[in-house]
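Dear colleague,

Thank you for sharing your sequence with our group. We've completed the structure prediction you requested, and as agreed, I am returning the results in plain text so they can be pasted directly into your records. Please verify that the sequence below matches your submission; if there's any discrepancy, let me know and we will rerun it promptly.
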Amino acid sequence: MGLFSRSRPTPLEGVDLILADLDGVVYAGNGPIPHAVDSLTRAAEERALGYITNNASRRDSVVAAHLTELGLPTQPQEVVTSPQAAVRLLRDTIPGGATVLVVGGDGLVFELEKAGYVVTRSADDQPAAVVQGFAPEVGWAQLAEAAYALALPEDEGGIPWIATNTDWTIPQARGIAPGNGTLVSAVHTAVGRLATVAGKPERPIFDEAVARFGARHPLFIGDRLDTDIAGAQAAGIDSVLVLTGIDRPKHVLAAPTVSRPTYILGDLRELHEPYPETIVKGDVTTVGGASVRIDGPDVRILSAGDRPIDLVRAGAAAIWSTGRAIYGFRVPEQLYADPFHRR
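Please find the predicted structure tokens below.
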């Protein structure tokens, strides 16, 4: 995928499906992120709108109801969840009707029971697999049951372990909280095994979403480079990183090749704005009114311009084009300043 497409006046041109992440893109906790609802409503006037979420704590119907309350009328089938992706993987591993130990909440239990599995919370019930997803109520007791069930390595006859996702953090109204990745890591530390991951950045959840909508030219919007953008790139989908959630400008500048977005936005209003062309002349990269030069190990700001987002775009394009890691540069603080969180 090309960086900063020159062929689209806005990121939405030619797109027939918008797939949006939820936490950090549409809402934080229960409240909407500024400008997200209005911007997505406008975008949906001419194309389909769906949602992909790694958060396994709620059913698709509950997520749809929440979005509807926020002003985005949504049907359950328009929400693709990591528990649904986990069930897809589980079907290839164990037969329907088998007993599955669940670490997680109602969203995960619902999808497993709908698929015909018997849910247990105890390793004493001899489960055929462990499926782990995020829920606020998950505590030591659930993690311990998973560890007991997974004590034997799979290559020695142990049972499969599927994690809905491994996001290290999750945005909440009060700030950034530990995500499912921290809980999966706790079990990994106890048993020395790695889980198979169903959600982002793995392909199954993206493939399910594209197939469900019959899309030809989808665009995915996320707030995390390591799950959202890496997953979209692996699935061959153009992507937007919006700076209203987890990852900040300093993370964008340091993004590895596998997790670089097609577009970088300060907030979702910019979906509807012409996306500026990236112009490279010699060692100078210009986006809008912002210009950056790579001078050996130094990244120099020639012009900050009047839009901080253009400076981030110019800095990222300049650094990425060198093929060198971020720690090989001296980067001015102004380039990774962060005025975007409270737009």
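Summary note from our side: The chain has three domains: 17-80+201-272, 83-197, 278-336.

Kind regards,
the structure core
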